[in-house]
């Protein structure tokens, strides 16, 4: 791992470096034993850079700063996994085995997250997926070392997919990113479409990563005569799909575009002229209330730039803060020794922060909080910077997320 793929930020006093081949002084060993290391493993350069990237690092740093000095130090290390599971696993293994990293956060790409979750179980560390969609993390692939924050494909499919069917979009064609996330989102959305009386008339898998031209896939969708084109993709892929659908005039022909995972960063990249009228499921909107606005101001003060704060960034803050609260509650030595015990303590403690308000973590590792259905505003409706959404519906956590008994998580007692 080179310097461009790793940056260190220290909260409190930094750990003393070890001289090559020498035994560390007692003070350095003591400080290392009293230091929690948070590894932010994310997309810093690829498809998901805007919904992760600098804002993810800033949100994590803010959580550490606001947690304050409670008798132990906190260090951040960050790395770009390039949306490749092999790269992500190699980085995380090095962090766990050599660098004494205690928790890995963000994770982004579902394929990367599934691999890191299994590694965290093997090494008895903690994985907090704050930017990962596949609902398999709390289903067939769940384990006692992993928590899934923010959103998942089940919630997105239910809140956004059902809304489209109820609005008359009863025939669907999917453009699906060809990896774990896309497959899960198509699967979960198809289930709700059919339950609501709709039909899936076709789908096409788009190579991931690296696809920038979606024209041939969109023409296949148009030829299917489906009323709705479901985009089971995210980040730059979503932006490019919507732009190219507009260029082909698909929406002018009455075809609806269902962006099943759309972030405010995507709306920002598209502009309101192109994005107006799209609906999306979210669990955090920066302008929802005074608490979310205050949190957003603090994250942006660290991150700088013009990228809006998305629900993924809110999850980076919220998940890191709750993890540190659990460490403080059980003690650093115990937390460093047993990742499963930390996750159990996180589940036992109620969650509360300015991002998501009050919530909880279920037995299967699903973080519970309300979800919201938003519509993107018309340009003339927007009054100030990043004023992009209007609320259509609020969905309780219990209604939005998959029932505990239906996920197939081996941790759930029957």
Sheet/helix structural class = alpha/beta
Q: What radius of gyration results from the CA coordinates?
A: 21 Å
Q: What percentage of amino acids are in beta strands?
A: 15-25%
What's the number of helices? 15
Structure summary:
With 414 residues, the protein is of the alpha/beta class. Helix content is 40%, strand content 20%.
Q: Would you kindly provide a written description of the structure presented here, covering whatever features stand out?
A:
- With 414 residues, the protein is an alpha/beta fold.
- The protein is 40% helix and 20% strand.
- The chain contains 15 helices and 16 strands.
- The strands form four sheets. The chain has a six-stranded mixed beta sheet, with helices on both faces. A four-stranded parallel beta sheet has the order 8-7-9-10, sandwiched between helices. A three-stranded antiparallel beta sheet has the order 11-15-16.
- A hairpin with a 5-residue loop joins strand 13 (357-361) and strand 14 (367-368).
- Helix 8 (236-247) packs across helix 9.
- It is globular, with a radius of gyration of 21 Å.
